[in-house]
Amino acid sequence: MNPDSASGFTTRAVHVARGYSGTTGAVMPPVYLTATFAHGNPDGFDYTRSGNPNFRLLQDSVAALEGARFATCFASGVSAMTAVVSSLKSGDLVLAEENLYGATYRLFERVFAKFGVQVRYLDLADAAHWSEITRTRPALVWLESPTNPLLKVLDIAGLSRVAAGVGTPVLVDNTFASPYLQRPLELGATLSLASTTKYLNGHSDCLGGVVATNDPAWQEKLLLAQKALGLQPSPFDAWLTARGQRTLALRMERHCATALALAAWLESRRGVRRVRYPFLPSHPQHALARRQMRGGSGILVAELDCPAEPALEFCRRLRLFTLAESLGGVESLVCHPASMTHASIPAAVRRRVGLSDSLVRFSVGIEDFEDLRADVDRALTEVLG
Ligand SMILES: *Cc1c(COP(=O)(O)O)cnc(C)c1O
Q1: Looking at the structure, do residues 214 and 259 belong to the same domain, yes or no?
Q2: Which of 245, 270, 291 is where one domain is finished?
Q3: 146 and 194 co-located in one domain
């Protein structure tokens, strides 16, 4: 069945991506574990590097959820970013938000800098900096919202309007929100990128990335990158992701409710200096978050009233939150960004963007709120007294 685009979000999540059932009546698609396809087949498949039924099912489904004409899937979020940046050329300028995922910064600085792609980092939550877009006319504006790990919320519609004025495409890394909470293309962005490793798949059992767009020229570049650079996922991982995304709305509702409750409780907890969560009134861009997102998502950060070492010890003492990189799965995780996900960002840069060494990032899973709260409470008492 192919529900029309007027169907609700979850109807699309469940019903798109079930095709290719042929004459078997299978309710769910098989995994097409094939490297190649007989020449001249009616569906136009060729070789799995450039397409596979499981990729198409996932791509159709993600496009339906993002409200996009096209989506292309990749082996990981980093592969998806590689596909986009490899479409630029030497001498091109990227204007990026300064608070980026660590691997994004590393990809720009350690890889694409060698090929002459220049990146300038700015605080794009401050509208006073937006005139740099008009002044420098970059080849691409690169946003993340909410950002990792500070959860800054950027005005996607406002920034897209300014960039459109000088014909600059805007990419939004939508990993933290997922298309259930925020749809960047509807807000004017050109490209919506996600690491499907996180919320879209939601079960922490495979890596993946996707880029959605309405622009046929960009779509052509992304498909070229998928096959020319060998950035394609495995059919099995695409199948897992297509399965995971069917329950995206249900999971996100639960992540949002539990994270908001935990953030509100933590804010008044002794030993916690500061809590950041987009749907808490204390968040600096709270009104914008409410306008732009349907919920605050499942990530929250807390700055503990202690130095780096006890903050890390607190993370180790949690029992229901595993100390691990990544986020967005049904299970709760905790991370100490300064020593883990953001260790590749120089200490001086971390300080400048406000990434404190006592910052702890929680990825709140779908477990029961009271169990999670009690776990955090106990670990805080053990470490801070
Ligand atoms: C995890 C993540 C990525 C990279 O995705 P991988 O699937 O790990 O390669 C990119 N952006 C953000 C915001 C992420 O959280």
Answers
A1: no
A2: 245
A3: yes
Out of 20, 46, 49, 137, pick the active-site residue.
Answer: 49
Average pLDDT over residues 342-354: 80
Burial class (CB in 10 A: 0-12, 13-18, 19+), 348: exposed
Work out the pLDDT band at 21, boundaries 50, 70, 90: low
The domain that contains 350 carries what CATH number?
3.90.1150.10
Ligand 1 pocket, residues with Cβ under 6 angstroms: 76-78, 101, 103-104, 144, 148, 173, 175-176, 195, 197-198, 207, 209
Cα of 352 from ligand 1 centre, angstroms: 22
Domain that holds residue 321: 248-384
pLDDT exceeding 90 applies to what percent of the chain? 86
Query: Is it the case that residue 189 has pLDDT exceeding 60?
Result: yes
Mark whether 252 and 240 lie in a shared domain: no
Answer whether 85's CB lies under 8 Å from 107's CB. yes
Domain end, chosen from 199, 219, 245, is at 245
The protein residue with its alpha carbon nearest to ligand 1, atom 2, reads 195
292-302 pLDDT per residue, tens: 999 999 999 99
The shares of helix, strand and coil residues in the chain, as percent rounded to the nearest 5, are: 40, 15, 45
How far is the CA of 300 from the CAs of 58, 113, 370, in angstroms?
29, 32, 17
Strand order in the sheet with 93-97: 70-74, 209-213, 191-195, 170-173, 140-144, 93-97, 118-122
Of 285, 223, 307, 177, the residue nearest 52 (C-alpha): 223
User: Which value, in Å, is the radius of gyration of the alpha carbons in the chain?
Assistant: 21
Same domain as 294, residue 184: no
Within-domain flag for 4: no
Q: Does residue 304 form part of some domain?
A: yes
Ramachandran angles phi, psi of 311, nearest 5°: -65, -40
pLDDT at 1: 46
Ligand 1 atom nearest the C-alpha of 175 is 13
Give the lowest-confidence range in 215-229, 310-324, 331-345: 331-345
**Together in a domain, 142 and 234:** yes
